[in-house]
């Protein structure tokens, strides 16, 4: 039997349009350019609805994204941890936005107050406008060097050490989490991390607990997993693996394909061309790997959007992040997830459009399929 899977969801902390063509999840569409679909702002009420729905249907956790386009992940997580009981929170962060000590202090407090329901998704990012907002003018090599130093200090702090280090990016003297009333530390938050570049592979091998990849065809994903296992083994370590994927799950494959194609209904050629130019201009190696799979994808040729069994590329024509999504019946999606588990995947982060409704489709359709097959990890 395949290993057990933990399923997580992605929280739309920048709000979302209910229409994919108008941005979908976490892509802001201003009122002047909206057409007919409503925009759901990231209100505490809406985000709480999603979190409670995830908890109710058996998801293990939720990824809370980071970036200047969305609400602060620490603030959101703090609010929703108070409204939930079992749901875990994967708090995303950029190393350029805070010192390792500030992050460790914040994470330890949140871990203690939540009863150990916090893990960290460390996102190196890439050069560009987002980096410049924080005064980060380094190239990819410099940014990953920052992440490397950051994670080294972070782990030492979580281990209870008193840290003094003079690095290129971080100069720390006498930093410790064990002071005042805190004589012991709560469970160390796991570090989740993604990246397909050579720089990322090195950092993952040295520091991370869970390596995240965007969904790729199984053979391509297997090669990446083997490479990361080798990088970890060279450092005397082991890794767990996870994927980030879009999803559209329905009662039947035909209904899923119909609803997936409806996401692209009416898309204009200039819209597709503009999105592709923007996506191909990214410096993300993972983005480049995904977009390479869609070189021949055309909404007017629906068959060209299928990259593999239940692997649909329509999401990646317009949206950043994973190029592929899992599209099919609840049973078929469960089958594909179990095949990924056989490759070594045991953490799955999904998202769909609209967020709340798709979370219910998956929670009420796919999770029971996995549970019946004994492949769904129990919520702690």
From TrEMBL:
The entry's keywords: Flavoprotein, FMN, Monooxygenase, Oxidoreductase
KW Flavoprotein (keyword) present: yes
Domain Luciferase-like: 37-347
Superkingdom, natural source: Bacteria
Residues making up the signal peptide according to the UniProt record: none
Pfam family, one: Bac_luciferase
Gene Ontology MF: a single term: alkanesulfonate monooxygenase activity
GO biological process per UniProt: alkanesulfonate catabolic process
UniProt entry tagged with the keyword Oxidoreductase: yes
InterPro entries linked to this entry: Luciferase-like_dom (IPR011251), Luciferase-like_sf (IPR036661), SsuD_RutA_monooxygenase (IPR050172)
PANTHER family listed in its UniProt record: ALKANESULFONATE MONOOXYGENASE, ALKANESULFONATE MONOOXYGENASE-RELATED
Name of the protein this chain belongs to: LLM class flavin-dependent oxidoreductase
Species assigned in the record: Nakamurella alba
Organism taxonomic ancestry: Bacteria, Bacillati, Actinomycetota, Actinomycetes, Nakamurellales
């Amino acid at each position: 039997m395949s290993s057990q899977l933990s399923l997580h969801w992605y929280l739309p902390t920048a709000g979302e349009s209910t229409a994919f063509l108008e941005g979908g999840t976490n892509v802001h569409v201003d009122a002047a350019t909206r057409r007919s679909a409503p925009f759901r702002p990231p209100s505490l009420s809406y985000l709480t609805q999603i979190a409670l729905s995830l908890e109710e249907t058996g998801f293990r956790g939720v990824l809370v994204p980071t970036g200047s386009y969305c609400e602060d992940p620490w603030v959101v997580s703090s609010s929703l941890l108070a409204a939930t009981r079992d749901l875990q929170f994967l708090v995303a962060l950029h190393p350029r936005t805070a010192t390792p000590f500030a992050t460790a202090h914040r994470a330890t407090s949140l871990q203690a107050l939540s009863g150990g329901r916090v893990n960290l998704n460390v996102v190196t990012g890439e050069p560009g406008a987002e980096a410049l907002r924080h005064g980060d003018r380094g190239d990819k090599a410099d940014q990953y060097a920052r992440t490397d130093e950051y994670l080294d200090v972070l782990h030492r702090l979580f281990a209870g050490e008193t840290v003094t280090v003079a690095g290129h990016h971080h100069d720390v003297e006498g930093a410790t989490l064990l002071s005042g009333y805190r004589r012991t530390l709560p469970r160390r938050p796991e570090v989740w991390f993604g990246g397909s570049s050579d720089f990322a592979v090195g950092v993952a091998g040295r520091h991370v607990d869970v390596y995240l990849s965007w969904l790729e065809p199984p053979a391509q994903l297997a090669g990446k997993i083997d490479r990361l296992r080798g990088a970890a083994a060279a450092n005397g370590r082991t890794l767990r693996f996870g994927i980030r994927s879009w999803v559209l799950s329905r009662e039947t494959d035909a209904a899923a394909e119909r609803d997936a194609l409806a996401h692209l209904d009416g898309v204009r050629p200039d819209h597709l061309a503009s999105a592709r130019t923007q996506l191909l201009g990214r410096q993300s190696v993972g983005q480049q790997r995904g977009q390479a799979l869609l070189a021949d994808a055309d909404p007017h040729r629906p068959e060209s959007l299928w990259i593999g069994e239940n692997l649909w590329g329509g999401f990646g024509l317009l949206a950043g992040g994973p190029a592929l999504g899992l599209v099919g019946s609840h049973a078929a999606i469960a089958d594909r997830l179990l095949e990924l588990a056989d490759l070594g995947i045991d953490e799955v982060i999904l998202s769909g459009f609209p967020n709340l409704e798709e979370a219910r489709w998956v929670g009420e359709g796919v999770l029971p399929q996995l549970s019946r097959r004994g492949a769904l990890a129990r919520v702690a």
